[in-house]
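# step 3/5: fold
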Amino acid sequence: MAIRPLTFGRVEGKFALTQPADHPKLEDYKVDDVARGLESLTLQSVKADAEAPATEAGHAVFTTMTDLR
């Protein structure tokens, strides 16, 4: 099963899932839960790639509107 990235953005002034475009209809509260999670995102123990543990526990990319990654 291929992993498909999820992209969120503003649609008609509301936070919404924009990609994949063919997603099923989502309940508003589920999308709001994602927004709340991103609001409280805190990065701790950030290390350079060379110092990172050998086994990746997970992978995520959080990109702001200004392309800060």
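# step 4/5: annotate
The chain is about 15% helix and 15% strand.
# step 5/5: archive (pending)
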